[in-house]
UniProtKB/TrEMBL annotation:
SUPFAM superfamilies: CheY-like, Homodimeric domain of signal transducing histidine kinase, Nucleotide cyclase. It catalyses: ATP + protein L-histidine = ADP + protein N-phospho-L-histidine. Residues 338-461 form the Guanylate cyclase domain. Its EC number is 2.7.13.3. Signal peptide: none annotated. It comes from the Bacteria. The modification 4-aspartylphosphate is found at D217. It comes from Tropicimonas aquimaris. This is histidine kinase. It is found in: Membrane. Residues 168-284 form the Response regulatory domain. Keywords: Lyase, Membrane, Nucleotide-binding, Phosphoprotein, Transmembrane, Transmembrane helix.
Length: 506
């Protein structure tokens, strides 16, 4: 296997581990909390299944960590997929059993944590299929491309440093005798030396090959040494090559010009062998430090971009910027925004009749489609709660057309689910009003919204009609111009809210 292929193979394995470690850690962490709470508050009969979930969760985490640390480097994708899915199936199966058998006895907070475990399993299954279906020899895009590029750059630098204990040096002089003398002196010290008879020839060589150091004569007919130096330092790909100027000129003005133009050092002819060796070693040492610096920068940039990519999957861009600006508490009141709830009809019977893996795959497919639709309409996804999808428009940046955008978003959600091969039906509730939005937590923080507007939107979804949108009166007034015919008007009595007028629209 070539070095480049080995890098791509390692890139694939690292991407597998990085994509899966987040959900795997979340599953294990939340399951530890579930087990601890069940031991405190019961029911005790649920502990046996909860322990099985915990064992499977930590088995899954150990498998991912083994790949991440390089302890395991499986080459068979099908085998790897099987080994990762096995504990996931156990986690899903026993978690569903706990909810079905003891749901009425378990506290709401523990139930929420169990549903979080199930949701993270959905993400994990999706990530397993995505990363393992990527051909490591094919072109990758987005964060995968960035990761592979950063890894290849880092490993290539480290690989070169290990193999090249001596330097690869370019000698540029128009006099054959001078070139031969410098070449022989440097080869005796173990360096690899390439000679060029002119500045133009040297530029062509630098464009084709890599060098750790260049020794350049000043007086050359076609392109003098100072001009060649300026060309090298003006090019982003070549400016890191250290250059030692070599010349019979002993004028301080010439030395100054060379140093100002970017030369590392200046040697007078005839060149003293000891001094030459000392200056070359110093330049090569500096070059190696530069390569290490580039390696560290590549790693830092990779980690930064990885963190940015992860943050953008969790938080809105304006909130990320405010965190970078140093805000400790992010909380805002918005006088008017639209909140949308969408819920899959008859999801509980579906969950009882489908294998866990198929159910999670189906739910993931639906929510990924919802995410794409939200992005198209400028809607901010807030979170998923079981089989419910919660989104808002007008936060964290106010929009005058938040209601119309939300109506178009809701219509596309209904259309997307009904157009699937195995059509699903959803209920959608939508209400406009004031909300409070902010960042909650430290370890696994989330951007969430609160207020009566959120509660009413949820109630509208729960009392809605499958395949249609249930609007409050304030929401309908804002989008009334979007309907050619009169909608179905109702008077609803909603729990905790009372009697209100609502509208059912398509």
């Amino acid at each position: 296997m070539t070095f480049g292929n080995e890098i791509r193979r390692k890139a694939l394995l690292i991407r597998v581990a990085q994509r899966l470690s987040g959900p795997a850690e979340a599953i294990a962490g939340f399951q530890d909390i579930v087990l601890e709470e069940l031991r405190k508050s019961g029911p005790n009969d649920a502990l046996a299944d909860a322990l099985k979930v915990q064992v499977a969760a930590h088995d899954l985490l150990a498998r991912v960590e083994a790949i991440k640390n390089g302890d395991e480097q499986p080459t068979d994708k099908n085998r790897l997929r099987h080994d990762l899915r096995t504990p996931v199936n156990a986690i899903l199966g026993y978690s569903e059993l706990i909810v079905e058998d003891f749901g009425d006895e378990i506290s709401p907070s523990v139930l929420a944590d169990i549903r979080t475990v199930i949701g993270e399993c959905a993400i994990l299954v999706s990530q397993i299929d995505r990363v393992l279906d990527v051909n490591p020899d094919s072109s990758m895009t987005g964060i995968d491309s960035l990761t592979a590029h950063s890894l290849e750059q880092t490993l290539s630098i480290a690989h070169r440093n290990r193999e090249e204990m001596k330097g690869r040096i370019l000698v540029v002089d128009d006099t054959a005798q001078n070139r031969d003398l410098l070449q022989r002196q440097l080869v005796r010290q173990g360096h690899e030396v390439v000679a060029a008879a002119s500045g133009t020839e040297a530029l062509a060589m630098v464009a084709r090959e890599e060098f750790d150091l260049a020794l350049v004569d000043i007086l050359m007919p076609d392109l003098n040494g100072i001009e060649l130096l300026a060309r090298l330092k003006a090019n982003d790909d070549w400016r890191q090559i250290p250059v030692i100027m070599v010349s019979g000129l002993n004028e301080i003005h010439a030395v100054t010009r060379c140093i100002e133009a970017g030369a590392e050092d200046y040697l007078e002819k005839p060149v003293d062998q000891v001094l030459l060796n000392s200056r070359v070693r110093a330049c090569l040492e500096k070059r190696r430090w530069q390569l290490r610096e580039r390696e560290y920068i590549a790693q830092i940039e990779y980690e930064r971009d990885r963190a940015d990519a992860l943050l953008h999957t969790m938080l809105p861009a304006p909130v990320i910027q405010r965190l970078r600006d140093g805000e400790d508490v992010i909380a805002d009141r918005f006088e008017t925004a639209t909140v949308v709830f969408a819920d899959i009809v008859d999801f509980t019977p579906m969950a009882a009749s489908m294998p866990p893996a198929d159910l999670v795959k189906r739910l993931t497919s639906v929510f990924l489609a919802f995410d794409d639709i939200a992005h198209q309409h400028g809607i901010e996804k807030i979170k998923t709660i079981g089989d419910a999808y919660m989104a808002a428009c007008g936060i964290p940046e106010p929009r005058e057309d938040h209601a119309h955008r939300s109506l178009d978003f809701a219509r596309d959600l209904i259309r997307a689910t009904s157009d699937q091969t195995e059509a699903l039906s959803i209920r959608v509730g939508m209400h406009c009003g004031p909300v409070i939005a902010g960042l909650v937590g430290r370890v696994r923080f989330v951007y969430d919204i609160w207020g009566e507007t959120v509660n009413l939107a949820s109630r509208l979804e729960a009392t809605g009609v499958p395949g249609r949108i249930h609007l409050s009166a304030p929401a309908f007034r804002l989008v009334e111009d979007a309907f050619e015919s009169a909608p179905d008007t109702r008077v609803q009595t909603l729990k905790g809210i009372g009697e209100i007028q609502t509208f059912v629209v398509d």
